[in-house]
Amino acid sequence: MIEGPYFVLTVAGVLGTGLVAGVFCAFSTFVMKGLAALPPAQGVAAMQAINVTAVTPAFMLVFLGSAVLCAVLAVVTFVLWPDGATVELLLGSALYLFGCFGVTIAANVPRNNRLATMEPGSPEAVAYWPAYVSEWSTWNHVRTLAAVGSTLSYVLALT
């Protein structure tokens, strides 16, 4: 079993990745469905507002802080190679860094940036909205599962 500062880092990893998984799960299970049920102009305007307000210090601390923590856990695991938890720690780090953080940067943020350039009631925004909801949601499901998997891997590392 891991101990000391390494244990504290892993518990922090559980908390951070779990919080992010919860936020993304909310979007996958009801937020995007609610936005998709609105008329396109209203859905676009609401998502644009969400995307602006999501970049708050509190959320960014959890989201980016978890990425940094996962990177630290991966490096420390490679250096120390702890008995019994190596696979779980490396898997948890990889799932979050690539499946959650990486997917956010590569898939969700570009769609958000494109949506941000559109006037909510414009023909372009109305035409793009269904594709945005479908594509953004698909990638959000991926990052939700990755964050959940990361949390589970870190929990298993503690047992």
From TrEMBL:
InterPro entries on file: Anthrone_oxy (IPR013901)
Record carries keyword Membrane: yes
Pfam families, per database record: Anthrone_oxy
Keywords of the record: Membrane, Transmembrane, Transmembrane helix
Domain of life according to the entry: Bacteria
Bilayer-spanning residue ranges: 6-31, 52-81, 87-109
Protein's name in the database: Membrane protein
Organism (species): Streptomyces fructofermentans
